[in-house]
Write a structure and sequence with these properties.
It is a single chain. With 222 residues, the chain is α+β, with helices and mostly antiparallel strands. The chain folds into 2 domains: 65 residues, no CATH class; 124 residues, no CATH class. Helix content is 39%, strand content 10%. The strands form 3 sheets. It has a two-stranded antiparallel sheet with strand order 1-2. A hairpin with a 2-residue loop joins strand 5 and strand 6. Helix 4 runs antiparallel to helix 5. The protein is globular and about 50 Å long.
Length: 222
């Protein structure tokens, strides 16, 4: 069963990108236990897997509070980070969960990457295949939902949402899922660590076709 994925802004999560040391033993044990598979979207992320603090408190490194998370899902817990507004956009999409949205977006990015295209909406690509055309139109339609988010909370910036969540009293913060309603975070095809956008490296690790190796039987799933 997938864990719920709710935007959060716990004070312990406010950190500079790249400071999470997954080499610490509790984090290693959590990743091994979860087989390096995201507990929120069920997708593997290999060496780019992060560790999510289930109860939102990053100081609690007990085994039950740590869960493997892909960068897209883990980012939902760090919407106050310095580069959060470059990595994500707040949209209104009550039709699906944040978990499913991340799966959809990663699929869109896979299409772009495999065609050698950037995974952002900065420049409209040449629709050289039906898959690219469909992926772009879906991504563009999702991005347009930001206008509805702006009508709901006056902003489409994750850091503004983080500020609003941080201003809640503990009781209201504990029920933020109902307060947030249909607000979701749309990944924008960028991911920063130590001030550098490493998303292209992540895509390469996830989707690049192996070279010089024999093809695997179709029954094997990575």
């Amino acid at each position: 069963m997938l864990l719920p994925l709710i935007p959060s802004a716990h004070p312990s999560a406010q950190r500079a990108e790249g400071n999470l040391d997954v080499r610490q033993e509790p984090y290693i044990q959590a990743l091994v236990r979860d087989r390096h598979t995201c507990r929120f979207c069920a997708l593997p992320a290999g060496s780019w897997q992060d560790v999510f603090s289930v109860n939102d408190d990053h100081a609690d490194i007990s085994a039950g509070n740590l869960a493997a998370a892909c960068p897209l899902c883990h980012g939902v817990q760090h919407i106050a980070d310095a580069h959060a507004d470059e990595q994500m956009r707040v949209i209104w999409l009550p039709e699906i969960t944040q978990n499913l949205l991340n799966v959809v977006v990663r699929g869109i990015h896979e299409v772009f990457f495999c065609e050698g295209l950037p995974c952002t909406l900065v420049k409209r690509p040449i629709f050289n295949t039906p898959a690219v055309s469909a992926a772009w139109r879906a991504y563009f339609a999702l991005d347009r939902r930001a206008s509805t988010a702006r009508s709901v909370i006056d902003s489409d910036r994750p850091r503004d949402l983080a500020a609003a969540l941080s201003a809640l009293d503990p009781h209201d913060y504990s029920r933020r899922a109902s307060l947030i309603g249909g607000l979701r975070l749309l990944h924008r095809g960028r991911h920063f660590q130590d001030g550098r956008d490493v998303y292209a490296d992540q895509l390469e690790a996830w989707f690049a076709k192996p070279t010089g190796t024999a093809p695997q039987p179709s029954s094997i799933k990575e």
